[in-house]
Design a protein that fits this description.
The protein has six helices and four strands. 45% of the residues lie in helices and 25% in strands.
């Protein structure tokens, strides 16, 4: 699997999503988005089936347990445990999973990065 392809695809997908939905910063900064792709699209490197399943804050990641399971949630909690409140509030995280709930990759986008991307839109 080509992680770089999926990082670019996630970034483009989210910028499009934010632009098309006219999202304000408070609707994405400090949030974690659970993004799903169809299993068959993984091998084809097709981002046509990317979609947001749900979103939450970094501190309320337990909300994703029904989809990704307790072990995955605990891993994310551990990964984010050293992030300051300021760091959390100035970025967003996109977690990409297949529709069979296998982890694919994740992407952190900072406030500066999303602003720059939206300005170029």
């Amino acid at each position: 699997m080509n992680e770089e392809f999926w990082w670019d695809a996630l970034n483009e997908f989210f910028v499009d999503y934010a632009y098309m939905n006219d999202l304000e910063e408070e609707n994405y900064l400090g949030k974690v988005f659970l993004v799903v792709v169809d299993e068959e699209d993984l091998d084809l490197e097709s981002n046509d089936s990317l979609r947001i399943k749900n979103n939450t804050t970094f501190d309320e990641i337990d909300k994703f347990e029904p989809w990704i399971g307790k072990e995955e949630v605990d891993e994310w909690k551990k990964a984010w445990s050293e992030l300051s409140s300021e760091d959390k509030s100035s970025q967003l995280e996109l977690l990409l999973y297949s529709d069979k709930w296998s982890y694919v990759c994740s992407l952190t986008i900072t406030n500066e990065q999303i602003k720059e991307s939206l300005e170029e839109y």
